[in-house]
Amino acid sequence: MGPKHILLGAVIAFTIGSHSASYAQEIELGSYDNLLDRVERLEQNASAPVHRTAPRTCCCDTGQKGFYGMGELVFVAPFQTNSTGIIAQNDPVIEHLDFEWDLEDSYRVEVGYLGGTDGFGWRARYWQFDSSTSFDVDSNAGLVQDEGAIIWTSTDDGDTIIGLVDVDTATMTQSIETDVFDLELQRQLAKPLKISGGVRYAKISQGFLAETDAGIAIGDIEFEGVGPTLASELVMPVRKSGFALFCNSRGSLLFGNQNFRATDDDGGEILLIESDGHLATSLELQLGGEYRFAKGLYFRTGVETQYWANVGSPNPSAIYTDDSDEANSDDPRNEDLGFIGLMLEAGFVF
Fold first, then answer.
1. 175 and 149 share a domain?
2. Is residue 131 situated within a structural domain?
3. Which InterPro entries does the entry mention (predicted)?
4. Residues 28 and 76 both lie in one domain
5. Is residue 55 situated within a structural domain?
């Protein structure tokens, strides 16, 4: 390689090196300018207010604290283990013609305090039902072949018989009135589950009236008692909407007095049975759905059923179990009463 080639190679190398250094300097200066711009933008963003979206909470959060109140419309139909209105002696078949109830309106109110999951709360609630039903019988309805009979028999001595026979036309009416008051402490074990316990007072009065062509017959029974009550409430939110499913249950044990009286204007006798140490029990269940708004307002609807054992019945207690004319005596004090229907509830937590 001659001197000319060596000189040419040196010139080329110098030119390439100078261009590379200039390009590297441009890259370096450009990167530094970009870095200054980014720092300036970050400083501007840091001085601007930051808007953050609050995490969405479920309106069905049942671990709330505060006072609340609610009102319920309860539409229920009573049912009884002895629903006899009159005995139709239609030869050869003897039939018991029963009372049939439609849905009747009643109301329930409740006030209390929610202690959340870290404290106790309390509540007071009251339910009243007061309604009656009637039906008529004559030769075209019910008593199509023979007369009717309305009979109460004493379970103590078997000798006292109250009632009417040879009834051709009659109007039977039954009335039921309840007053139920609960006072309880309650605790939120977890957000979905709440339990409560306390004392219940209940007064249940039932009446029977038969206005017939053979006279008038009247039966009355009343139970009044006090005892412990336990309840639970389970609320399961539907994802993170305001909707939820709920289940309420309650059981009570009541000690008290029970008085039964039956009379008629035929013989003028009175059948009176009194009990100072009577025991009754009750079970209640509600199932349904609810919607809760963010500000504490909520609505509920669902089915409700109640069963009251040993509260008695005022209806005629003689029971025909076959086609004979022999009636068996039944104790009116041990009959059961129940309710089944729908409920609508609105409440507010504040």
1. yes
2. yes
3. Major_OMP_Legionella
4. no
5. no
- Enclosing domain of residue 28: 1-49
Closest CA to 278 of 206, 339, 220, 221: 221
Question: Which amino acid would we find at residue 325?
Answer: D
Judgement on whether residues 42 and 88 belong to the same structural domain of the protein:
no
pTM recorded for the entire structure: 0.79
List, in order, residues 6 or more apart from 133 with CB less than 8 Å away: 99, 100, 101, 102, 173, 174
The total of structural domains in the chain comes to: 2
Q: What is the CA radius of gyration of the chain?
A: 40
CATH number for 298: 2.40.128
Classify residue 58: in a domain, yes or no. Answer: no
CB atoms within 10 A of CB 80: 22
Write out the chain's pLDDT in tens, 350 residues: 554 444 444 444 444 455 444 444 444 445 566 756 765 676 666 555 544 544 444 444 445 789 999 999 999 999 999 999 999 887 777 888 999 999 999 999 999 998 887 789 999 999 999 999 999 999 898 888 778 989 887 765 556 778 898 999 999 999 999 999 999 999 998 888 999 999 999 999 999 999 999 999 999 999 999 999 999 999 999 988 889 999 999 999 999 999 999 998 865 678 888 989 999 999 999 999 999 998 889 999 999 999 999 999 999 988 776 655 666 777 888 999 999 999 999 999 98
Cβ neighbour number for residue 326 with a 10 Å cutoff: 8
Distances (CA, A) of 323 to 14, 27, 87, 242: 131, 114, 12, 59
One domain, residues 21 and 153: no
